[in-house]
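Researcher: Quick test of sequence recovery. Tokens follow.
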């Protein structure tokens, strides 16, 4: 809990009172301790024992070209496979809490350079039309054109976005997980083909658009 207090403003964790003065209204904390190793950070559930972060969202695109695996509702939803209802800074914090370290070596979008950072697997969970629980790796939903080459299984990397004079870049642009390299995103695709912009949704594997999902990020190693 000491780490949480160091990373979150004190005003968000406690309310103060002054002798002889009415107590100030309590501010709802974005962080809640659920058990000894499970926390809620905004809409995220963080399990420091399992080293997982679970995020809610939906299928944003069930066909077409994509440059992002996931964005927030304020992000580039016209080119993202998933829409996650999370705040990027909270995802950054959650990944740190499960032991991940970020490293952003990218300077611009589409740069032909291998992103670095802690490896993290990404799994999508949903229920089909019969109510049966399903899950698949994020890579299963993507193919590269021309040639319809499936994305091979691999961990993604925690790049961490950038702190700009205006603020945390991922919060400003809503970029969470990039397929086509993007220094603004919290996470990126480390494959050499991450510099290619020919990625499309694998319609044969993808649930219908707007299907509710949750995504599990799990630290590797």
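Model:
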């Amino acid at each position: 809990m000491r780490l949480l207090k160091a990373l979150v403003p004190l005003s968000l964790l406690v309310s103060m009172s002054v002798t002889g003065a009415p107590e100030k209204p309590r501010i709802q904390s974005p962080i809640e301790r659920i058990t000894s190793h499970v926390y809620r950070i905004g809409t995220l559930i963080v399990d420091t024992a399992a080293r997982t972060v679970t995020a809610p969202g939906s299928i944003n695109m069930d066909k077409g070209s994509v440059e992002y695996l996931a964005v927030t509702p304020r992000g580039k939803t016209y080119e993202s496979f998933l829409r996650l209802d999370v705040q990027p800074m909270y995802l950054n914090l959650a990944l740190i809490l499960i032991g991940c370290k970020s490293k952003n070596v990218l300077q611009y979008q589409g740069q032909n350079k291998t992103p670095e950072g802690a490896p993290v697997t990404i799994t999508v969970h949903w229920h089909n039309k019969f109510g049966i629980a399903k899950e698949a790796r994020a890579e299963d939903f993507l193919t590269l054109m021309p040639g319809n080459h499936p994305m091979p299984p691999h961990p993604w990397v925690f790049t961490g976005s950038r702190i700009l004079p205006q603020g945390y870049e991922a919060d400003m642009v809503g970029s969470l997980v990039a397929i086509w390299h993007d220094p603004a995103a919290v996470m990126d695709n480390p494959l050499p083909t991450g510099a290619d912009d020919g990625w499309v949704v694998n319609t044969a594997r993808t649930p219908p658009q707007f299907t509710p999902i949750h995504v599990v990020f799990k630290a590797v190693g």
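The helical segments are 2-7, 88-97, 169-173.
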